[in-house]
Automatic annotation (TrEMBL):
Keywords recorded for this protein, A-Z: GTP-binding, Hydrolase, Metal-binding, Nucleotide-binding, One-carbon metabolism, Zinc
Identification of the protein by name: GTP cyclohydrolase 1
EC number: 3.5.4.16
Region (Disordered): 1-26
Assembly and interaction partners: Toroid-shaped homodecamer, composed of two pentamers of five dimers.
Pathway in which this enzyme or protein is active: Cofactor biosynthesis; 7,8-dihydroneopterin triphosphate biosynthesis; 7,8-dihydroneopterin triphosphate from GTP: step 1/1
Signal peptide (UniProt feature, chain positions): none
Positions of transmembrane segments: none
Entry-linked HAMAP family: FolE (MF_00223)
Family matches, as PROSITE patterns: GTP_CYCLOHYDROL_1_1
Pfam families linked to this entry: GTP_cyclohydroI (PF01227)
Amino acid sequence: MDAIVKNFPAGGQEQVKDKAQQPIRPTQQEAEEAVRTLLRWAGDDPAREGLLDTPTRVAKAYRELFAGYEQSYQEVLGRTFEEMSGFDDIVLVRDIPFFSHCEHHMLPIKGMATVAYLPNGPVLGLSKIARVIEIFGRRLQTQENMTAQIANAIQDTLKPRGVAVLIEAEHMCMEMRGVQKQGSRTLTTTFTGEFKTNPTEQARFFTLARNR
Ligand SMILES: Nc1nc2c(ncn2[C@@H]2O[C@H](COP(=O)(O)OP(=O)(O)OP(=O)(O)O)[C@@H](O)[C@H]2O)c(=O)[nH]1
Ligand SMILES: [Zn+2]
């Protein structure tokens, strides 16, 4: 199946949030009871031996898979390096793998992100780009919003001349269920600053991102 290419504009309907707004959390016991309900909904018996510890494990796994709600991109991106501030050309980190979950079905999204920016003074530690992807990936997402959130977070904190984000991902809700199109991939991009206004910079981004 052909990939879908979408350009999701920065600063669109999705505001960049720092720590996600926190509703009142249910207790561990309530979360485990909800898992028992879903086990019964699936057709199994939560009281059988093999499933006795499953609610505890699922609650623990959810803490890990959705840890992004507890994390702040501003903390991660707050630490920059000034001593390389003479460097003003493109910095691009390619093919950063991530997992997320779609907000429609809570099923996994498996993808790769490529992120570039044009420094305007300070530069980021390279791992911080991957950490920002983890923060937004470990929340319930649409691919479009995740792409824009990563770009806007870097633009808002680092204030570079431009940011470019390309995400290519597979959605298990389209592969394992529903329309069942295995192997289809969705591409989304967000450009800010010079990557948005200067076609040459945008073309350089695609050359570096896609050439093997
Ligand atoms: N735009 C967008 N859509 C997504 C994303 N992840 C999942 N979806 C889509 O969300 C839509 C939800 O559609 P609905 O008709 O409300 O739900 P559904 O009956 O489960 O839809 P089907 O998946 O077609 O069976 C589906 O078309 C999914 O493919 C995403 O990241 N971005
Ligand atoms: Zn889905």
